[in-house]
Each structure stands twice: as structure tokens, then as C-alpha cells.
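mind reviewing both lines:
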Amino acid sequence: MTPSNADWKVLPHDPMVQLADNLWWVEGDLPDMGLRRTMVVARLASGDLVIHSCIALGEAAMAELEALGRPAWLVVPNGWHRMDAARYKARYPELKVICPPGARKRVSKVVGVHATYDELAQPDEQDDSVRLEPIDGGGGQEGVMVVRSSDGISLVVADTIFNLPHGKGLFWFIYGRVLGSTGGPRVTVIGRFFLLKRKAQFKAWLQRMAAMEGLVRHPPPVRPCHAAGSRSWPWHAGRIRRSGAET
């Protein structure tokens, strides 16, 4: 059954944090997992909001979100980060859903897709403060959301790049140490197997992103800590914000 506004399911989450004049970030739990997820919200010049990897928040936090602007665009960053997508679409019927081209089939199973990154690179064609592009070498499974703010440029990515600290216990030993998912910014074994098709193209894409003029780094609370597709990660040349999580 497709989720509806009536079954708006809220899991524990942190307060929303402003990262730049037009950019916000919130982290929340995943069900029955020690991992967490992240939602990033960008505001266009028109006041419309672009929501990347949505999280169903409590009513007070949703009121705070709505006070920022009109939820107009929902970015589902891959075929797994879709847990609350149908709930957002039910709550905001005019919301337009965008996803990477390679994720369209899987995302469409839970919510209708308005366009893919290659079909609509800018949610607002008159405003280049937010644009979307597939990640080179990834077969269209994921992409990057580029956000221009007054202090510089942010790159919002998902599972292709992890940034988790080491954790304690058997799960974190296997998931983190054995599979190489923790210990700082990295492309994991899982990511290389499922998401990367042409590694040379991906390497060139990383180098192009790192060389982008205007990248800046955020201070805490944006810290290295992931959730199956969430998290911001500072890079040597600036910042790459990771966002997402779930199924």
C-alpha cells in the first residue's frame, strides 16, 4: 500500500539546522537500525523549496519547514532513499518529484516521477542556485545537487560517497571495518559494486567537483556520521554534503 498523509510516520529526529542563507539540514533515525539519515532543504529565489531525501518530521518541525517556503520539489537521490517520498507527495499534492535517470523505475514504484536529472537539470529554469546532474561513471543511479549560496557552493550527494566514523559492536565491525564503510570520506565496497560502472569516469568527476570554484566547508554540527545514505562530508577543497538514507 502506498503511504498517505494519514499514516505520516515520524521517527526521532534532530532539530533543523541552517547551513547557509538558502540551505538547511536535519538528521533523523531509521527504523530498527543504528544508522541515521539526513534531509537537505534548499530554497530558490522564488521562495520554493527543493527537498533532497525527505524525512517525515514532527508537526512543529514541519511547520518550521513550511515557514521557509513552499515545498515544491522533491529530489529522491537514488532508488533506495524513498521511504517518506509518498508521504510527502500525499501531504503536498503539487510537489514534483525528481530522481536520477537510473533510479526512475524503482522510485516510480512508490511515487510518481515528474522528471529525471537529465530531463530537468534545474527545478527553476530562471534560477541556477540549485541544479541537478548524474554522477559520471555511475550509470545514472545517483547524482549530485549543486546549491549556490551567498557563502559559496555545496554539493549534496548520497550513497556513492560515505562518511561514517568507526562504531563499536559486531555490526559496526562488519559493516564498517570489514566492508570499509567507516573511517572518513570514501567510496565503499558496496558503492563500488552497486553504483559505479566506470571508475575512471567517476574519478574524473570527483576531480572536477573538487576543482569547482567556490566550494566552502561547514563547521559542526555537519560532522562525519552517515546513515545508509545520509550525511555531509567535508573534503580537502571544500565540502560535499551527503544526504539521504533508507529503502
